[in-house]
Design goal:
This protein is mainly alpha-helical. 71% of the residues lie in helices and 0% in strands. The longest helix is centred in the first third of the chain and has 31 residues, at 55-85. The termini are far apart.
């Protein structure tokens, strides 16, 4: 029987990233030690230092390897919408679908780690880690500028502060849904048991678009179609 080929630097690097991603989801950034990561990844501290240099750099790379591609897909989707619109404002629902739909598709990926990463991202939204939040703010800067700008143009009759609030609420709803129903089961006896990530996309998109279409405070008319 032929011997297995030796592990490459890429294999080791990916194992470290995968292990860190899973452990950060379960224990948080502060609760995950380098020893836990190296043990789970079957690697040594020297390998972590060689590939990443520090724990902070490792945290950044855990996010960057998937978040960069996700944000590129979001921007590409928005580019296509704007090209098709030929200078006209976009439908708000299409903007929301381009931003959140791509994230929910990644959350439905249980084979390549997308689901784990989106759970980590959801947990990060709710944890006060200043270093990670600053890093994410920088990573999201172009995407948020483009998508919020598109919403401002699409909804000129809606105050910008209201659009910001609604986008904030939609991100929160997505983060809670992706993080799982465990906390909800402690409050509601009849918590739904269907946790198939693939079913999350249409279910949550319907909810998010309903929130976007809700009447303005004190108004009867919905702000979008």
């Amino acid at each position: 029987m032929a011997a297995s080929p030796p592990a490459t630097n890429t294999d080791t690097r990916d194992r470290i990233l995968d292990a860190a991603e899973r452990l950060f989801v379960e224990y948080g950034f502060d609760g995950t030690s380098m020893r836990m990561i190296t043990s789970t990844a079957n690697a040594n501290l020297a390998a972590v230092n060689y590939h990443f240099g520090s724990k902070d750099a490792l945290v950044q790379e855990v996010f960057r390897r998937r978040l960069t591609a996700l944000n590129q897909r979001r921007l590409a989707a928005l580019d296509r919408l704007e090209a098709d619109a030929c200078g006209e404002p976009l439908k708000p629902s299409r903007i929301v679908e381009a931003f959140f739909g791509n994230a929910l598709e990644l959350a439905a990926d249980t084979e390549q780690g997308g689901c784990t990463f989106m759970r980590l991202l959801a947990r990060t939204y709710n944890e006060p880690n200043a270093f990670v939040r600053q890093f994410l703010a920088e990573e999201y800067a172009e995407v948020m500028d483009r998508f919020l700008g598109a919403l401002f143009r699409a909804l000129p009759e809606v105050p910008r502060a209201e659009i910001l609030w609604r986008f904030h609420f939609m991100i929160g709803a997505m983060a809670f849904a992706i993080a799982g129903l465990g906390g909800l089961s402690e409050l509601i006896d009849d918590t739904p048991q269907d946790d198939d990530p693939a079913r999350l996309l249409p279910r949550l998109m319907s909810f998010l678009l309903g929130g976007l279409r809700a009447p303005l405070p004190g108004a009867e008319a919905a702000p979008t179609k």
